[in-house]
Design goal:
Layout (H helix, E strand, L loop, with lengths): L7 H15 L5 E2 H4 L10 H12 L4 E2 L1 H15 L6 H6 L19 H4 L23 H14 L7 E2 H9 L5 H11 L6 E2 L1 H15 L10 H7 L34 H4 L3 H4 L3 H14 L7 H9 L5
Antiparallel strand pairs: 1-2, 3-4
């Protein structure tokens, strides 16, 4: 049987779907295919036939097996009798991708890389510029992509979550493995927001044709030291009653600063590099979505024993 060749539209949909269903194992089990039930508009009999025609007698689907199954489903959706030989010989783009209701591929680095924008909107694409530089627009796009893909909202992207985004760049896996190793500076097998932005910058540079550096460039090392972007303050709704002038304070008035603190110099408050690393690790341990809530901060600060 002829090898299956996908269109660009199919790749954008099918590659993230395989990453989600295979969960990093390289195989999609029958129990995972249940995900498609009710999402394709096809009866279970059609899905079963597509599975049997694609699995080759195995109890799982490889990546190309899943693509064939989806091509067969697409044929059925378009009123064509599913046939594996016809599915494989079909020219890329001659058939629209299978419709899968409710499945939204995560944002692809290709789609959010400004290297695919016009030079007028992306200063980093000008000739002679640093391929690994980060514009404010890129940083914001990658921050939004991180937030969308941090599904458990723990402030990190694990290997499976990041793999889907990385693979969408279609760079060689050897390069993507190097990107991961260079970005995961804490070596905890997950990426926080700063590490993710660094990874996106490296991928962006590789997509421009640059060579991966032996170590992180200074501007990317500085990116790791950037403070997280503060969340937008929540606005009061139109119907919220305004606070009257005589409203009682919601918190007690602050106590006067001790005399010892008032006489402290700036040098007394400066953090050493070792302390900065310790504080960064403490922040990473308590952060959720790149931020520390009041309750989380209270728990961490109360351990100092200070009044």
């Amino acid at each position: 049987m002829q090898a299956l060749s996908l269109s660009q539209q199919e790749k954008v949909l099918y590659e993230p779907l395989f990453a989600q269903l295979s969960k990093g194992t390289g195989q999609v089990l029958g129990t995972e295919i249940v995900f498609l039930r009710g999402k394709t508009g096809m009866p279970d009999a059609v899905l079963s036939q597509a599975w049997l025609a694609s699995c080759g007698g195995k109890n799982y689907l490889t990546q190309m097996d899943l693509y064939l199954m989806l091509r067969l489903i697409a044929m059925a959706q378009n009123g064509i009798t599913p046939d594996p030989n016809q599915a494989c010989s079909a020219a890329p783009g001659s058939l629209p991708p299978a419709r899968i209701d409710g499945f939204q591929p995560p944002s692809s680095p290709v789609a959010i890389m400004s290297s695919h924008s016009s030079p007028a909107t992306s200063p980093s694409t000008t000739s002679g510029s640093d391929p690994f530089s980060i514009t404010p627009e890129q940083r914001e796009k990658w921050r939004e992509s991180f937030a969308r893909n941090d599904q458990d909202q723990d402030g990190y992207l694990d290997g499976g979550q990041a793999r889907t985004l990385f693979a969408a760049s279609r760079l060689p896996f050897t390069q993507l493995a190097q990107v991961w190793a260079m970005s995961d500076v804490t070596q905890d097998r997950r990426l926080d927001l700063s590490e993710f932005i660094v990874a996106m910058a490296l991928i962006n540079g590789l997509l421009k044709g640059a060579t991966l550096p032996a170590q992180l460039p200074p501007q990317l090392q500085a990116e790791l030291r950037r403070a997280p972007v503060a969340p937008t303050p929540t606005k009061l709704s139109v119907g919220s009653p305004p606070l009257s002038v005589g409203s009682p304070s919601l918190s007690p008035a602050p106590s006067p600063m001790p005399t010892a603190v008032a006489t402290a110099t700036a040098a007394d408050w400066a953090a050493s590099e070792a302390e900065r690393r310790e504080f960064q690790q403490l922040f990473s341990a308590h952060a959720t979505g790149g931020y520390v809530s009041g309750a989380q901060a209270r728990q961490g600060l109360s351990s100092s024993g200070l009044p």
